[in-house]
Amino acid sequence: MAPKVLLTQLLPPDSQKLIESAKDVELVCWDKTGAIPREKFLEMAKGVDGIICMLTEKIDSELLNAAGPNLKVVSTVSVGYDHVDLNELRKRSILLGHTPGVLTDAVADITVLLVLAAARRIREGIRAVESGKWTWSQTWMLGVQFTNKTVGIVGLGRIGSATALRLKPFIGDNGKIIYFGRVEKPIASSLGATKVEFDTLIRESDVICICCELNEETKELFNYEVFKKMKSNVILVNTARGGIIRQDDLCRALSEGMLGSVGLDVMTPEPLNSNDPLLKFDRVIVIPHIGSATLETRTLMANLAIENVLSGVRGETLPHGVKMKSN
Ligand code: GLV
Ligand code: GLV
């Protein structure tokens, strides 16, 4: 019997054709718009050999039990895999594939977009135009100039370094790039970036970009105590995962007048409720987790996820497998 692959959402057209042309697998798809409801996911996963999922699908023991013993590979169409319980996969010797590399440029682009938009108060400006509040005062809508400023990158991985590279021309030769992370990154020297302690980064940066993965060490790394130490006009941008910021603390800090402006592509929960307190601040720009949302990037991500799942069900090594560290 051909191995069965569950696809939890239709892929961009070229990728969809690619997976449908794989003749040695039986494909089942959730073909409705939007994320697959949990109940459907549990039901459709039954007996499958491979799953292509999105970051909206929690892969936990309940799902893996529902899928049953045939499941060999989970392939997420995302670089991040904090929605996947690695321990549960490891226990069952199930492989995990993800999509690093191909979304680096798109996410770095959107990080820069948020930095610029936050620094120059774009949301407030658009709102002023739309509500007839445009005035010509010299000191109205003053934003932050980048020249000579310090950019702090949390997580100088692929996305972090691509972001640093893009921001370098904005700060100029007298600007500084600093970064925080677990290890020294060889790429840092070519970027002119210096590794610093976390405390130094949050105190000295004019612009902070969160580009690290969400894990036990980075969960709520940004909380009230941290916001208190930041420059009063700091620009804080998160394009990684919402859970890295303790969001209640962010709202509290903002309502107490801390922080300059904030740009978020990721938050808790996603989608954010339209009446969330975060949205009442003019100086917070929230966009709907669209870091990788270009046709080119989404197609490359989907193609990589397809390669991962097909390799997994065929018993081959995944082109982009997540290393399953043992505890
Ligand atoms: C997007 O957030 C991803 O992890 O790919
Ligand atoms: C993710 O792709 C990263 O390494 O930043």
From TrEMBL:
<protein>
    <recommendedName>
        <fullName>Glyoxylate reductase</fullName>
    </recommendedName>
</protein>
<dbReference type="InterPro" id="IPR050223">
    <property type="entry name" value="D-isomer_2-hydroxyacid_DH"/>
</dbReference>
<dbReference type="Pfam" id="PF02826">
    <property type="entry name" value="2-Hacid_dh_C"/>
</dbReference>
<dbReference type="GO" id="GO:0008465">
    <property type="term" value="F:hydroxypyruvate reductase (NADH) activity"/>
</dbReference>
<dbReference type="InterPro" id="IPR036291">
    <property type="entry name" value="NAD(P)-bd_dom_sf"/>
</dbReference>
<feature type="domain" description="D-isomer specific 2-hydroxyacid dehydrogenase catalytic">
    <location>
        <begin position="5"/>
        <end position="322"/>
    </location>
</feature>
<dbReference type="InterPro" id="IPR006140">
    <property type="entry name" value="D-isomer_DH_NAD-bd"/>
</dbReference>
<dbReference type="Pfam" id="PF00389">
    <property type="entry name" value="2-Hacid_dh"/>
</dbReference>
<dbReference type="GO" id="GO:0051287">
    <property type="term" value="F:NAD binding"/>
</dbReference>
<dbReference type="GO" id="GO:0005829">
    <property type="term" value="C:cytosol"/>
</dbReference>
<keyword id="KW-0560">Oxidoreductase</keyword>
<comment type="similarity">
    <text>Belongs to the D-isomer specific 2-hydroxyacid dehydrogenase family.</text>
</comment>
<dbReference type="InterPro" id="IPR006139">
    <property type="entry name" value="D-isomer_2_OHA_DH_cat_dom"/>
</dbReference>
<feature type="domain" description="D-isomer specific 2-hydroxyacid dehydrogenase NAD-binding">
    <location>
        <begin position="113"/>
        <end position="291"/>
    </location>
</feature>
<dbReference type="GO" id="GO:0030267">
    <property type="term" value="F:glyoxylate reductase (NADPH) activity"/>
</dbReference>
